[in-house]
């Protein structure tokens, strides 16, 4: 009897398994053979504002005499995989999108928590159409109706402290009202006023957002630690970050003693006159947070597209370039050249400077024949000619954060295959490219500099990259 039951059970499982395999195929005409999904190459979509950098090999390091004796890393031939790179440094207007997103998400989270506290039911959208109730947490379903998942998340988050990463979905379809005379109700007013500096901390009674509250949360996996301990789960190497995103505008005053830079401190980041200037006052942690936000922001847009069209791929992660990627891109396809434009001179055949830097001691502007040829501080992006890959300001204007920690033996330690090193507890990060306040030597593509990762400067900005697979169909700029 037992033998018959076992045989019947195995036969049942066999039929069930066959059915699952048949239904799980990609084609209705499944003949049981496993084939590749597609034989064609994947064509990446070039992100707006980025240019493709082809993979290749180059001689890394100082190609000219190092008269400072500070860049003693020996030359080394390395290979670098292809990637997209921002054609300019991240500008004030681009970084403002990040700051505004964080501000809006914090406001919406606070409003949703207050609505939940007041008893508004996110599972009943029709009952949350007035006042603060319109900002309740919402369902992620296509029709907006509550689902068992929404109910589970709502119950499991009871008593939580408003962590925006807890799985609940904010309502981004309702416009936030920032005009204090148009607030819909008292509860809404209480939440929104909590985002501003309290009256006792205001300057001349001016009502301003408390930038200390503008924090961005994201999670990464410590890949190096995970690689050393094989067989463990990613969750064991999960790192969660909370980063205040507002730039430190006081750098314009703090970086220079006995210098009147107050106008830059007051206006540089927010005034529309500086929209197209590179953002500064951003430390390494903030630059990394921006890269994570850019990935999330792009994916959110694709998710909206997916709901309309039914399909969309996630984007490959944006990040800071490694030190080696930065130098490779800065050279613009020219081997052994000291500057992005080739070199060895800092001016063209008409005597015009090829980058924004300090040409002489005490002279930041350089007036030639009665004509101003330079800039006292930063310059608008794309003021000077790009290099062979189409990248602007890879020398001068602002120096740029890289992903790499600073170590004098980095070149010897790093692999020759897509080199990059990661050090535990690193505090000093590599900065490249020189800036508006530097001399010509700092503009050389091989010159290395460093800064503390939690430091912000008036002369350091950044740009991001997005890798793409080797063999992708990409149209590259013709180098000259």
Number of strands: 13
Low-confidence stretches: 1-26
Radius of gyration: 27 Å
The structural class is alpha+beta
Helix content bin: 10-25%
Order of helices and strands: HEEEEHHHEHEHHHHEEEHEEEE
The CATH class of the domain at 59-88 and 320-467, by name, is Alpha Beta
CATH arch. level architecture of the domain at 59-88 and 320-467:
Alpha-Beta Complex
**How are strands sequenced across the largest beta sheet?**
11-10-9-12
Q: Please give the largest β-sheet.
A: 4 strands, mixed
In words, what does this structure look like?
With 480 residues, the protein is an alpha+beta fold. Among the domains are: 59-88 and 320-467, Alpha-Beta Complex (paralog of FGE (formylglycine-generating enzyme)); 96-213, no CATH class. It is built from 10 helices and 13 strands. The chain has helices at residues 2-23, 92-117, 148-156, 186-193, 223-228, 251-254, 262-267, 284-309, 323-330, 410-413; strands at 50-53, 56-60, 76-80, 83-86, 215-221, 238-244, 367-368, 371-372, 399-405, 428-432, 449-452, 460-461, 465-467. The strands form 5 sheets. The protein has a 4-stranded mixed sheet. A hairpin with a 2-residue loop joins strand 7 and strand 8 (371-372). It is globular. Mean pLDDT is 83; it is low at 1-26. This is Gliding motility lipoprotein GldK. GO terms for molecular function: formylglycine-generating oxidase activity. Keywords: Lipoprotein. Pfam families: FGE-sulfatase.
């Amino acid at each position: 009897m037992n033998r018959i039951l076992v045989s019947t059970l195995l036969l049942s499982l066999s039929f069930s398994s066959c059915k699952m395999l048949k239904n799980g195929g990609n084609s209705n005409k499944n003949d049981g053979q496993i084939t590749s999904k597609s034989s064609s190459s994947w064509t990446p979509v070039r992100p707006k504002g980025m240019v493709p950098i082809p993979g290749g090999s180059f001689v890394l390091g100082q190609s000219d005499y190092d008269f400072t004796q500070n860049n003693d890393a020996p030359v080394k031939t390395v290979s670098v995989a292809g990637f997209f790179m921002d054609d300019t440094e991240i500008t004030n207007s681009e970084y403002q999108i990040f700051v505004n997103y964080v501000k809006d998400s914090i406001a919406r989270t606070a409003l949703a928590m207050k609505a939940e506290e007041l008893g508004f039911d996110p599972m009943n959208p029709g009952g949350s159409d007035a006042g603060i109730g319109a900002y309740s947490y919402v369902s992620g379903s296509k029709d907006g109706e509550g689902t068992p998942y929404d109910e589970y998340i709502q119950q499991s988050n009871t008593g939580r402290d408003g962590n925006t990463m807890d799985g609940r979905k904010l309502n981004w379809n309702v416009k936030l009202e920032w005009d204090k005379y148009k607030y819909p109700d008292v509860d809404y007013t209480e939440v929104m006023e909590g985002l501003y500096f309290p009256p006792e901390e205001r300057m001349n009674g001016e009502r301003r957002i408390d930038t200390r509250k503008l924090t961005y949360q994201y999670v990464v996996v410590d890949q190096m630690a995970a690689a050393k301990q094989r067989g463990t789960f990613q969750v064991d190497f999960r790192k969660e970050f909370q980063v205040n995103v507002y730039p430190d505008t006081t750098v314009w005053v703090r970086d220079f003693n006995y210098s009147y830079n107050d106008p830059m401190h007051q206006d540089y980041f927010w005034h529309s006159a500086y929209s197209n200037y590179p953002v500064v006052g951003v430390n390494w942690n903030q630059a990394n947070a921006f890269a994570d936000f850019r990935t999330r922001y792009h994916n959110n847009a694709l998710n909206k597209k997916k709901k309309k069209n039914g399909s969309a791929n996630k984007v490959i992660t944006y990040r800071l370039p490694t030190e080696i990627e930065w130098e490779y891109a800065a050279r613009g396809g020219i081997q052994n050249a000291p500057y992005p434009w080739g070199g060895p001179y800092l001016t063209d055949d008409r005597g015009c400077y090829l980058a924004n830097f300090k040409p002489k001691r005490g002279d930041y502007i350089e007036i030639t024949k009665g004509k101003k040829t330079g800039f006292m501080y930063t310059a608008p992006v794309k003021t000077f000619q790009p290099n062979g890959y189409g990248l602007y300001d890879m020398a001068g204007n602002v120096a740029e954060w890289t992903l790499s920690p600073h170590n004098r033996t980095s070149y010897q330690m790093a692999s020759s295959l897509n080199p990059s090193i990661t050090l535990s507890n690193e505090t000093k990060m590599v900065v490249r490219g020189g800036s508006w306040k530097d001399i010509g030597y700092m503009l050389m593509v091989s010159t290395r500099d460093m800064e503390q990762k939690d430091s912000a400067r008036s002369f350091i900005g950044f740009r991001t990259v997005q890798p793409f697979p080797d063999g992708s169909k990409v149209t590259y700029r013709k180098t000259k």
